[in-house]
Amino acid sequence: MKLIRCLLLFVFVGVFFNIGFGNLRVISLSPNTTEIIHEIISLVPKSQSKSSAHLVGSITYPGQPAYYQNLENIGSFQALNIEKILNLKPDLVITWQYQTPQQTLVLLKRFGIKVKVFQADNLQTLAKSFVRIGQVIGLKKQGQALAKQFSQALLAIRPKNFKIQPKVFLQLSNRPVFTIGGQGILNDIIEFCGGKNIFSKVNQISFEVNPAAILEYNPDFIIQTGSVSQNMFQRNAQSTWQKWPMLAAVKHKHIFVISGDSIAQYSLKIITGITQICDILHKS
């Protein structure tokens, strides 16, 4: 108990001096929020950068961008270093819903650290989250500018006058086979591009599915995530689905692979993945 009181005093003093005499120090516990914060801060004019919010720490993950080298590594999804977070004296810790254990957030709050959790259920609320994140780090105008960039990019790639709504199976992994339900941003991307997620009636974000269900729904397109360039998609002639030639997607050679990274991060970068899915459904 005495140790906890000392740590609390340490954090409160650190937060006081940071807010009173320094810039806003921010730690991100999610790749989503790290990228969004980085994008917002990058929109700050150089003349104002010294008085801007500063992203001082983030979790690490495979394939992370080069700018992570300038951030303190405070652990991973499975192993956050609470002591290191406290030593960095953050004014604010930001994360994305379901990407940080609830007990971790409770512990950080217990040490007097302000924690903000963001979420988005579709592309429209994702744009709004850019504004909200910008606002909490004192960069509302930059958050609004990022949201505007995102909305304009969506408007530019949205398919026009599509008459057919193809059935789409988005495959997130092979063994086991994981896909998306009718909740969340990935389902909204399929609909945005004029497709129909074959599992849109399942009230989940993602789930494991029996291959027999895919045969029953007979999708027109199968889009798999894999290790390909983020800037391109490719037709997959070697897919395990080829052994079921009765599938519409197999018959019409409509099995494609996109980079999982292109749709994994809910930031401005997701425009790349959205563009590829729209192109697959309407230009292939």
Structure described in brief:
With 284 residues, the protein is an alpha/beta fold. It folds into two domains: 2-154, Nitrogenase molybdenum iron protein domain (Rossmann fold, 3-Layer(aba) Sandwich), CATH 3.40.50.1980; 160-283, Nitrogenase molybdenum iron protein domain (Rossmann fold).
Task: Describe the protein in words.
The chain is an alpha/beta fold and 284 residues long. It has 2 domains: 2-154, Nitrogenase molybdenum iron protein domain (Rossmann fold); 160-283, Rossmann fold (3-Layer(aba) Sandwich), CATH 3.40.50.1980. Helix content is 41%, strand content 17%. The chain has 11 helices and 12 strands. The protein has helices at 2-21, 31-42, 82-87, 102-110, 123-136, 140-157, 185-192, 211-217, 248-251, 261-264, 270-283, and strands at 25-28, 54-58, 72-73, 92-96, 115-118, 167-173, 178-180, 196-197, 206-208, 221-226, 234-235, 255-259. Strands 6, 7, 8, 9, 10, 11 and 12 form a 7-stranded mixed beta sheet that branches. Strand 4 (92-96), helix 4 and strand 5 form a beta-alpha-beta unit. It starts with a helix and ends with a helix.
